Write the structure tokens for this entry.
Amino acid sequence: MTINLSQHAGGGALYVPAMIGFDGFTDKYRKTGGTSSGNKVTAFGLIYTDTGGIPTNTRCIMRVKRITGSRLSINIPPNDHATTQRRNKLEIFVQSNTATILCRVGSVQEITDSLVHSFFFSFDGDTGVMVFEIDMVNAIDLAYPIYSAPITGTLPAGSDIQYDIGNYEDVNYFAGALGFLGQADAIWGPSDVFNTDGSPKDIDGSNTRFYNPHGQMNNSYGSEGDFTPTGNELWVSEVNATGHPILGINTIGDAVAADIATGKIAWVNGVEIVGTG
């Protein structure tokens, strides 16, 4: 169960955890009344979207928001966006507690190419330092139309945080698959979550706000506890020879052999499980 990443450093292969599929219409995870603290944020995960992207809607992968600003927002603009350079790129921004942009960045490459991509992002509001990588390679496009260089500032924090995965405000639904997804209120480095060959590390997630090795946020290992799911859970249990995930309905709960199609392989908590279901 390996695939070649289009931008992987050294052209190696990546073990792909089981992933959650999102239909682009109803599927989402949400947590309200959540908590956040401090001026540091890290996010990471695996993303799959179809070649060509989706028209009209921006697709929200992750949003951590308070009324007065977004602590973190990760999105993919549509393939018909008015600004051509923004189409199908990975965009991330961080706002202050007064909704001032502290950093905003877009990727050099499009990621809607029917391949699984890893991403890593961190921002330190105390020092104004940002790291953004896709497939273990620096992804910052300094000429991006809405690029805003990182500055220092105070991030939104408190006990009234809304966490969204795969959707924002019931409009910007994500279509594709997400896995090995997590977020922490601390500065991590890419090597904390990915091996040098690009494969995900086996982390326990206890020091994250949310984390699940296969993106199942109603079974989050982070301090925020479980999110509320809406829609069907579609599991990507394997990637075929051309890099396309294979989707299959799975039951609620941690992935075990019976939840995975017979003969298919899932990566769960650092262990490869061969399906019997």
User: Anything to note?
Assistant: The first strand starts at residue 2 and ends at 4. The chain has one domain: 2-230.
